[in-house]
Amino acid sequence: MSSFHVVNYSLRTNKSIQRNLVFExxxxxxxxxxxEKLGYIGFGSLWFTDFLTAHKSxxxxxxxxxxxxxxxxxxxxxxxxxxxxxxxxxxxxxLLPNMLAEPAAGKRPWLIWLDYDKGLDEEILDDLRSxxxxxxxxxxxxxTINCKNLGKPNQRVTRLxxxxxxxxxxxxxxxxxxDDRIAHTLLDLLSDFLVSVAASSARPGGYLPAFRIAxxxxxxxxxxxGFLPSKQNMAVAAKVxxxxxxxxxxxxxxxxxxxxxxxxxxxxxxxxRGRPLSRRAVRSLGFDLEPxxxxxxxxFYRYYPFYAQISV
Length: 312
What we know:
Elements: H1 13-33, E1 39-42, H2 49-58, E2 63-67, H3 70-79, E3 85-89, H4 92-101, E4 110-119, H5 122-134, E5 139-146, H6 153-164, H7 182-200, E6 208-217, E7 219-228, H8 234-242, H9 261-268, H10 279-285, H11 291-300
Parallel strand pairs: 1-2, 1-4, 2-3, 4-5
Antiparallel strand pairs: 5-7, 6-7
Helix pairs in contact: 1-2, 1-8, 4-5
């Protein structure tokens, strides 16, 4: 069963922060490298939240959404938010190579976000190979996966070696695959995999790692990706991505809890500040949060979504 049957992805707090970080990175690349004809390829599901952001914040017009579920496809067609969104029925493995092989597709860069809700498998790796091998110069590639579905911790090293082969170091331990560390391990391995595929594809501009985000909304998730520059844009892109202000490479997982509007506004009123926001300071506001949640909110408050319920 597709996850859209049970999850509204537009309402997940940490997912929303992650989405905002990805699109902020894309916005910076678009602005600095003048990617005026940037298109978007992704999984719009029923809500098209990322497509709305792509159009409204980046000005992207040409957009393709892939949907493998028959009922989901019909509902996605009904819910497509803009005239220029094309919803196609089929799996990413079937559709993406054909999309990128079209002559018109090669005339523009693409923001390709393969935002899966499942865990790493052979199909995902094949999709990433296709994207790197076929994406036009100056495209942005991002992938999101679930950290689970790799077996029990003592089975994960074997499973990862089956999937990724020599990308997995011989010294990878079971400890590195425990539930509290698997996200970090997958971030490293996926990043190394993308670098390796780009190198073997002999892209003239190479591949620049740019996106590295872990977050948790019930299930731990990781997002990894990079920029596929033209040879002429390599230096500028590398400078942009290596800047200290680059937003899409975060050191800590996003673990902000769902907050009421009043709680979020109270916390926001204390920021930014010179000294870290403490749990004691939060308590002085009249409520309490776990220390990890306080730290995460302070790190990501500029990207925190505010929701309200309305009657229509």
